[in-house]
Amino acid sequence: MIHTLTELLAMSVALGLPIMVAAAAEAVSERAGVLNMSVEGMMVTGCLAGVLAAVATGSPWAGLAAGAAAGVLVGVLQGLLSVAWRADQIVTGLALNTLALSGTVFAARLLLDRDTVTPGFDRAALPLLSDLPVLGRALFSLPAPGYLLIGAVVALTLLTSRRTAWGLAVDATGEDAVKADRAGLPVARIRHLAVLLVGGAGGLAGAYIALAQVKTFTDHMTAGVGYLAVVAVIAARWRTGRVAAVALVFGAAQALRFTLPALGVALPAALLVALPYLLALAAVAGLVSGSRRPSDLTVPFVRAGRTG
């Protein structure tokens, strides 16, 4: 039983990490007023770019960097559409997802062979800490970039807290962009940077999935994880510091698909696959009480006195 629980915790952390880093960045963007439904597209683009770069260079670290860069490119498109051109954020996000999902399938057919060997990351156990019972395997025996993802989440939480100037500027922009502009804050720049942040984090998360977990590219391999990252922000009540806990819950829901059969619990496979998304639906339906979204979330910024 202890062994199974250890495996459950380890798998929850492993599967929750990509959600965690993407959701932490998305929380910042939504606090600034921009909803990125395109996180899924950023992640799957990062998956393919990471694999292509790792195969071309022989270095999974190059793949990780390429994945983050590819996610930023999707973020540039999202920023142009939703911030600069003030298009509907939900529609543009879904459109970018469709483009990314179909485009990566097409590109993979052209550029990757079935027998292609993808360099990937193995577990990098930390001395002494990895020997701790239960927590050692879950937290201190991760692939090397897993520690990088945890560090990124911690850094985002600290740098965008409401005790920092950047955090206050982000919140002011998302609550009332016009007043923030009148106070001298560069609203458009803050929103663009927030979207690019999500792109980099989403691409990094995607490359991590491809290079540290699957070690290859498969069609639609993110399987809705990007949407879970968006929902995690809602469930965390737009607080970056709470995102980690929600992401671990979603990771645990995914891990139960593999650990419940080992415990002798017989449930339909389809139900286990759908469990994370059922939790997501519960959050979206308002079962997370006391949440209040930023007032200007999804509202395009138009400077006062400007009509076009």
UniProtKB/TrEMBL annotation:
This is ABC transporter permease. Keywords: Cell membrane, Membrane, Transmembrane, Transmembrane helix. It comes from the Bacteria. The chain crosses the membrane at residues 51-77, 89-112, 138-159, 192-211, 217-236, 243-260, 266-288. The keyword Cell membrane applies. InterPro entries: ABC_transp_permease. Pfam families: BPD_transp_2. It is a multi-pass membrane protein. It is found in: Cell membrane. Coiled coil: none annotated. It comes from Nocardiopsis changdeensis.
